[in-house]
Amino acid sequence: MIDKTNDWQVLFVEDDAVIAAGLVYALESEGYFVTHAKDITTAKGAIKEHRYDLAILDIGLPDGTAFELVNSLNAAGASMIFLTAVDNEVNVIKAFEGGAEDYVMKPFRFGELMARIKAVLRRRTGQGNTLIIGGVTINISEGKAFTGSTAIDLTALEYRLLLTFANHKGQILSREQILNLLWDSEGLFVEDNTLTVYIKRLREKLGNAAQIETVRGVGYRANEN
Question: Which secondary-structure segment (H or E) carries 32?
Fold first, then answer.
């Protein structure tokens, strides 16, 4: 059984009542804290109110598809596992390009899915509630970033911007992608010109601890080291 002191928070988005009941019971029996949402609207509300380590997402939902939640979950630093009854290569590619850690076909065996969930959570930085980018450690639970033991004084938007880069280390993000991630995380509007200012400020505050590279004509990339 997983130690509850880890406080793993799981968002499970599934509209099938039978599957939902079974998996919620299995997860809670293993010590996870589970929020079940049966549609996109409920899931979006949950993401705004709580922090999740993992989201398990049924793709087809009554009011849309789980792909509508990807940007918000990425911005919040949650890992994702997709569930689907349709073996569609386009959806598989879309899921992994969106940051999915795993993709599970229905019907599935609960034991196998639980093993996949544990594997995904083991890969979360080895500590579960932290992300590391260069010499910067982000404590997701506290919503703070540190260089060594020294806290970095970040505004809320600067912190979300840093979290976005930390979740996409080594990847080139276009300005449009970054703006969408920031918008979806809190429902706030960020103008393109404002993004330039905030990236400049973030770089100044990070100094040499983490590098955010400008990829001319494309966007930005945070170095992995």
Answer: none
- Rounded-to-integer distance, Cα 148 and Cα 203, Å: 17
Which pLDDT score is estimated for 202? 94
Please identify every stretch of the chain with a pLDDT value under 70, giving residue numbers as ranges: 1-6, 123-129, 141, 183-192, 224-225
Residues facing 34 on adjacent strands? 10
Residue 138, amino acid: I
Residue 113 neighbours by CB under 8 Å, 6+ apart: 23, 104
pTM for this predicted structure: 0.57
Q: What single DSSP character describes residue 63? A: T
Mention every residue, 6+ apart, whose C-beta is less than 8 A from residue 166: 77, 131, 132, 133, 136, 138, 222
- The closest alpha carbon to 69, from 90, 36, 47, 102, belongs to 47
Phi, psi (5° rounding) for residue 127? -125, -20
